[in-house]
Design a protein that fits this description.
Layout lengths: L8 H8 L15 E4 L13 E4 L11 H12 L1 H18 L12 H15 L7 E4 L10 H23 L8 E3 L4 E2 L11 E2 L5 E3 L32 H11 L5 H8 L15
Parallel strand pairs: 1-2, 1-3
Antiparallel strand pairs: 4-7, 5-6
Helix pairs in contact: 1-7, 2-3, 3-4, 4-5
Length: about 270
């Protein structure tokens, strides 16, 4: 298909950022972090990415990891290195609690994922960009009750990031976005269907917050797209480009050529970063 790509835009951005830039001050070659059982599409690609997910298995005995390390040190040094990195990642992310408390569509699970990600990002030589996928937002039925639960999880996730990042919070930007919008009208099952316009949230100590940036199109029938959807007035790529340029030091050329090919007409949104 024309325009089809095999990688996610966040991975392409990591691949194009030069070594030693703002996103990688430490010694680690791994600058991306994928959180969850499956890597979100946006961070899949050629650039190496660290993966972590809360464990859903029963905890192992304390002596099993060192016994495995001893075994692989004598039989497979490469696997021993990978195992050591995995053990270290798990300890940093999970702290004293390694058992999963819920899934990516559960408020408790969302907070646990965010807290683990923040602990890894806070390390001096840890990854600098992370992708987390929270589920359950496709609210075709019972939307109010579901959003009441999910938004609590999202709010608690913001708080977890702030708490665990510590001093790094002041240099942090969090972008929350959905794959698609919702219809303006409620359907027969007290939900909304797939639509066009949506909302994105920005949070973090690096964000110039306390405001709403929008060209509100209105909800009158004549103002809706195709008579059913909230009209989109802002290209999400402009928001991403604004953060990438002003916080991560990405070049506009990289963003237009590699990250979002064919987006010359979409300029970086200015004034998002403190």
């Amino acid at each position: 298909m024309p325009g089809r790509v095999e990688s996610g835009w966040l991975n392409r951005m990591l691949e194009g950022l030069p070594k030693g830039d703002k996103v990688s001050p430490g010694a680690s070659e791994i600058r991306g972090l994928s959180v969850g059982a499956n890597a979100p599409l946006v961070i899949r690609g050629k650039a190496p990415v660290l993966g972590w997910s809360p464990s859903t298995l029963q905890p192992v005995s304390d002596d099993l990891p060192p016994r495995l390390m001893d075994l692989y040190n004598h039989t497979d040094p490469l696997f021993a290195k990978i195992l050591a990195e995995g053990i270290s990642t798990g300890k940093i992310a999970a702290g004293l609690d390694v058992k999963a408390k819920g899934g990516p569509g559960d408020p408790t699970g969302m907070e646990q994922m965010a807290r683990g990600a923040a602990r890894l990002l806070a390390q001096d030589d840890g990854p600098r960009v992370a992708a987390l996928a929270f589920e359950g937002w496709d609210t075709h039925a019972g939307e109010v009750d579901r959003l009441n639960k999910l938004l609590v999880g999202l709010d608690n996730s913001f708080a977890a990031f702030q708490q665990e990042l510590g001093p790094a919070w002041k240099d942090t930007a969090i972008l929350v976005a959905t794959e698609f919008g919702r219809t303006a009208q409620v359907n027969g099952t007290q939900g909304t269907d797939h639509g066009t316009g949506t909302a994105a949230f920005l949070a973090g100590g690096a964000i110039k917050g306390g405001r709403v940036i929008a060209d509100w199109p209105g909800l009158k029938q004549a103002q809706l797209r195709d008579g059913r959807d909230l009209a989109a007035t802002t290209d999400l790529r402009a928001v991403v480009k604004g953060i990438a340029v002003d916080l991560l030091g990405a070049s506009p050329t990289l963003l237009t050529r590699d990250v979002f090919p064919g987006s010359d007409h979409v300029l970086p949104m200015k004034g998002l970063i403190v």
